[in-house]
Amino acid sequence: MREALAAAGLAWETAEVTMLPQTQVQLTGKPAESMLKLMDKLEDNDDVQNVYANFDISDDDLERFEG
Fold first, then answer.
1. What's the pLDDT tens digit per position in 11-58?
2. Which of 28, 20, 7 is nearest to 53 (CA)?
3. Domain coordinates in residue numbering, the chain
């Protein structure tokens, strides 16, 4: 893919394989808060290289738990 983009004269910032969820789980309330805490701990861990998830949390809940 990168070679095809370069041949077409297009530039890119990054090119990597990533995980995209096929389905998403809507989280609200206490489960949303718990998941955000878990994600923070995983991302802060030096032994963890990548964190992937399939949850969806509303903007209101994000502001309430992270604010």
1. 878 778 888 899 999 999 999 999 999 999 999 999 999 889 999 999
2. 20
3. 21-67
